[in-house]
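ugh finaly. both done.
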Amino acid sequence: MFNIRHYLLHVVVATILVMLGTAPGSQSYAQTIPGAGAPSVLPTGGGAALMDASDAVILLLDHQSGLFQTVKDIDVADLRRNTIMLARLAALLKIPVITTASEPKGPNGPLMPEIHQFAPHAVYVPRKGEVNAWDNEDFVKTVRATGKKTLIMAGVWTSVCVMFPALDAHAAGFKVYAVIDASGDPSEMASRTTVARFVQAGVIPTSTNAVLSELHRTWNRPEAAELAKLYALVAPNYAAVIESYQTAQEAAKQTTGSAAK
């Protein structure tokens, strides 16, 4: 049976070993960190079926204040937190971000400001009334200009603002992931039927935690400490694990210092 406490403890220990430079095989594996100029598929075959950070672009679609008020399938605070995590992850790993909004000066409201706050490199593409972002020529040109073929999409509503461009992008030859818990719908039924349609069409439904883990890949990388903070963002209890470790380390240092005197 999966034990979340054991998993989190393992993650913390692995992080500390990496930071101390004592992780098993740390020198050899450091040369094959995905996203650090090395192939994303390792000699073992690891990564062959996972996201490739070097080929990814994150598309955040219509995360708008007015639309948030209609979301019923996920707590809006969780939705915003997960979207912020994607923005922070993109900034940390230097993954392109493209945003767009549907009628931001109308009832749908403005785009949530945290996206561009935490991902200042994000490119905003205005639309001219199109419901489907893939109907907008500028949006599609901006996506193609990245040269990336893996699209990680999230938005509000899942059944419209994510599904329409996701299906069209998949039909155009892109590998498309839909981040369900960074998206929202007016009902659970709408969300469930959309996920079913994604699966039927070949779009891959996923979660923020899965995206973070797939793009992260190894604790043996210079961003390990910052990545740990992102896990604490999507799994708040993980922050308690980090805090307890840090407290124990401080206590150990004080004990060692006293003994040395």
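ok and the 2nd:
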Amino acid sequence: MCFDVALDGIFLYHLKNEIKNELQGFRVDKIYQPSREELLFTFKTYEGTKKLLLSARAESARVQLTKQYVENPKKPPMLTMLLRKHLTSARLRDIEQDGFERILTFIFDATNELGDPVVFKLIIEIMGRHSNIILVDENGIIVECVKKIDEFVSSYREVLPGLKYVLPPQQNKMNILTDEKYKIENAINSLNMKKSKAVSEVLQGISPIVAREVEFGMSIGELRAHIKNPEPTVVILDSPKDFTYFKPMQYGDLCEYKSFDKFSELIDYFYYEQVHFERIKQRSNDLFRHLTTLQERAVRKAVNREHELEDCKNKEELKVYGDLINANLYRLEKGSLFYDLENFYDNNEVVRIPADPTLTPVQNAQKYYKEYRKKQIAETKLNAFINQAKAEAAYLESVIDALSRAQTDSEISAIRAELYDAGFIHKRIDKKNRPKKLEPKKFISTEGFEIRVGRNNVQNDELTLRLSKNYDLWFHVKDAPGSHVVVTAIKEKPFTDKLIREAALLAAANSKAASSSNVAVDYTIIKNVHKPNGAKFGMVIYDNYNTEYVTPNEEELSALKEVE
């Protein structure tokens, strides 16, 4: 089964018309830059604020209206400042597209510093890894662009501020709506190649899924009808795999299909989750690497110390040797290589004790006592080192788990701050850049109980030790890192089996065991949860607990309403 996702020129044509219908004539209110290759514009319309997202990311280049929350950096990049200077309050006059080319030109009526009317064009080129967003003035000169292309990158055209904007090379393909049907069919049939490839070679704006549909049996006339009366559809095989403007037949019953009323709604559904988590992953990659290195180092320290501890295992034998020599001084002499003595600790079995012939029996006994004390001290220190290293490794594993579930920049920033406070990051975090205190996630059970879920270790401490009361119910996955989960008690309303299962599901889903089955989740009242002195963030001990076994599943979890 083939999936080769592409936002084609025909789909873009429908997106353009949809955006134009919603935003034409309205002014730009705010401009943001969520990531290096993405821009977000907000417009004030009669129906409220509308958000326009433009992306030049190689794997998800697109333009769309979005209803999703997009987190923006606290400090706007230089490109954002420049766009705000030229386009804030500018009116969107028109959106142009040449045929079904994957290039849209947004034309804005703006004013300069003197109040004179000027025109700016914001051009988005959707071409895979060559995608770009370019601001051009009314003379066709590039003001700025998301990706700068010099002569070393492209011999055909440079895309740099101050240069004249030149269109990408045109392919001069046929237009399915304006060219005659028989000419299109003749052009396709004249090519000695696979039909789907021939369709892509001949027609403008055709994605692989559409080309394969023609090969599967769709006529040019039928394709025209779908373009004129589109039905935005996503192909789903476990997760969204592809999309187009009609329900494809090539996959039969092997896939599911989801239709949308609007093209932008489809794009939101298809791209949001994948792009959102990829963006978060990019922003947390350095932290993951740092944490993994620290955790591996802590594990190695524990293992190395345990090897050293092996050498202390015979310490009691050394003390026994000293005791036996001392008890038999009256019959021992200097110069012996060993002493054969009855071990009164072991049924008077004879034991051969190595001796230094240059030392007296008393000195040999003292030598064994000295080695015993040395190993006794070493054992105590090594056990402390091992426990510390294991606690450090467990803590770092819990931070890695929390980071793997972080869904916003704020959550990542909070984890960075936690690591700084715990001494694992040494780059100082200024007070003004310190993230705002995050609230725990809140859910409402099907029976109306509030369930709170910690997002990181600091918040786990806050939730369990300060925000909760003695008889609230506390949950945590057994023997694995995860969030603290607390059900707020309601006076004269008992905790039911159903509630316990729902809270246990949240605890399992917000843990390292999220993808496991039959996960053990311990639960007890807050009164039974304690933090040992000196324990790291999020580390607690508990007693008098019960255990619930659950398998995280979307159906049950979706029944729990998350409160923003």
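summary for the 2nd one i guess: The mean pLDDT is 90.
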